[in-house]
Here is the input.
Amino acid sequence: MTAILTVDDSVSIRQTVRMALSGEGYVVTEAVNGQDGLEKSGAGGFDLIVTDLNMPVMDGLAMIRELRKRPAGAGVPILFLTTEADPEIKGQAKAAGATGWLNKPIDRQQLVRAVKKALVK
Here is the structure.
């Protein structure tokens, strides 16, 4: 089974991602911020990560930068799911190792398509 970690401080966004992706047969684990995401992904085992950008404790950019330093996170596709639309921040995310970018509000079909595409690479 394909394991996905969703990282977002919004309960409703995490639930929406979990429902959309579990409905496609993925196993989804939730984390409440970047630090929680790092801890849950520490041993590896995730095939893809969907993360918010702006979160308390540790934001998505900091989490990606740390994940990419670790062997378990070096090759894992990471999709941002955020309200942020600033091209400069998108560039920073890409430079940090983000695989893709989706804007909130979430479109379930778009999310599923982006996840499937990221997993093929």
Summary: The beta strands are 3-7, 27-31, 48-51, 78-82, 100-103. Residues 108-120 form the longest helix (13 residues). The two ends are 17 Å apart (CA to CA). The CA atoms of residues 29 and 119 lie 17 Å apart.
